[in-house]
Amino acid sequence: MKRPANLVALGIVLTAVLGLPVSSALAASPTPTPSTMPGKKATPQPPDATQPTVPGATPESDDKAIDRLPYPGDPEAEAAYVADEDHRLVEVRTVDSLARWSKTSLNSPYRIATGSAYTLVLTARKEVYTIKDLLGLAPQTFIRQPDGGYLLSEHIVVQSGATLNLNSSGGLKLRLASDPDGFVSIVNYGGVLNVQGAEGKPVEITSWNRDTSSPDKLTNDGRAYIRSLGGTVRFRYAELSDLGFWSGRTGGLSLTGTDRPNSGELDTLGKTMRVGKRAAKERAADKSTDKKKTAGVGLDGAGKSTLSQVLPAGKLPLPEVDITDPAYSYVSALIQNTTIKRNAFGLFAASANGLDIRDSRFDDSLVDGVVMHRYVTNAVIDSSVADGNAGDGFVLSRATTGIVLSQIEASHNHRNGLTMSGLPLADGPSATGSSLGSYGNNTVSNSKLLDNARYGVEVIGGTNVGVNANDFHGNDMGIVVRGGAGDVSVVGNRVTDPARQGIAIRDGVHSSTVSGNIITGGSTSVYVRNSGAAIQRNTMTDADAHAVSLVGAVSQTKVTENTIAGRGPSAIDAKRASDVNMHRWKNDDGNWHDTTPFLITLKRFLQPLTAMWILLAALLIFTAARGSRRIRKVVHPYADKAPVTDGMPVPASAVPVSPDQQGVR
Prior knowledge:
single chain, alpha/beta, 28-stranded mixed beta sheet, 16-stranded mixed beta sheet, 46 strands
């Protein structure tokens, strides 16, 4: 009785040595619990600051957080400068509206005192405005310098119907004043802005500190910028540097749409501010017919109908107008053979249609290289480079569709090489009433994404997104698809030497394909978490952990027809998957070398229930062996007793008889 008890004790000690819980040695093996479960929500790491919750995005402990470099300026001060610029542009538009309602002719360029600087407004005309025109219109604020360059020290606004050409066959250097005394800008407000250089002789535009006679490197007091609100912009053979601050619309080179109200808050304001006898009669007639007029600012007195007399003294009364709303018009642009470096944002676009960006560079930006922010459609980015930016190289934010990126290169950026977000603008009722629909129809192909600090390409939500025939080298991860994206095609890419995962499909991705990719190096070639994808006909080599890792709810994932080679604990790791059926999967993993240590293999084999049955079997075998040694040969029970006779009959005469016995006879 003591020996079986000793064996049980020995078995318990064995399970403890193997790392199995003693209490579980007599219990059933538990179902593997996925590290993330579907249905949970967590705030993603978006390419912009306000994104709705991503379904199924529960962060893993090994999800590395890599953010852009800290912004070097003064956020509070620069945000105030952005607000001042918005106010200035609304003021310019208000004056234009007042002029039209007061019947004042503003057919020739004019100047407005806005804040601490002047704004030169180029009005509509058939002839284009040139450098020569600017010298005549602004002789004190547009000055030729000894080296042949030009210094601009007042704002310029190009109105609708006007065209400004900044070009020179021999090259042009344009310096925009930007220092503690203030900064200037060039804003195309619905007109046409042409910046045309020549190969080897570009148009150079930079900020300029008049105190140091050098580009302005600081943004904390604002910095010169170029912007287009609607209209058309063309940049060919240009170099832009050290421009912009804080926001996208003041970020350096900004292309945004406009919103001019149809019924016109500004028009209503201008109409109510008309003075003179004729205006007084019109207002009296309106009152007599009980017509309701929108309340506005009234002016007493009378005088001639000139713009100088209708403007009130002091601060202009301005209505609330959102100049960033995309409803009014879209900007279109051609950026070709242009280099943009050290801007706040290399290029920022919103509400743009038909952008064409080719053979250009966007380097060393303080935020991101190229940002397609909202409502950008039908854009092409071809043969362009984004290198060394503090955030992402290229960003396709929410509400961008029909963007084609081809032969781009994003390298050494401090976050992602390319971010494509197709998330909806809202995840429920919102103040703006935005649609809950996702965006997409964007592709990147034949491109290089090299040595970025975070991901080569990150796809966040959206539908019908293509990542095809690209070359990834380095990067923390090559391709990451997450946030409930659907119908994503990851085909024909080459991913080499990622720090962690080559391709990651996670957090609610569905109906997607990962096929024909060549993945070399990294800890895991393909990682799938709480998603459904077809992983097929890929070549995965030299991973040092797993070729494929499956985590969580992956019932809609299939891993078939892949060629797998490498070294690690297992070729396909499904220990953390909750509902996976691998029986019909066929992969060529003959060249995978299992490097699991013997003790780990033993632990894997000796699960608690398995260990219990092994111990019971050993106990039965031991008991049977001990019993077999006690069995002896079967013998007669009285074999050790001497017989009385030998069993033969004896005659009576042969028996000796004593004399006494004879007398008796």
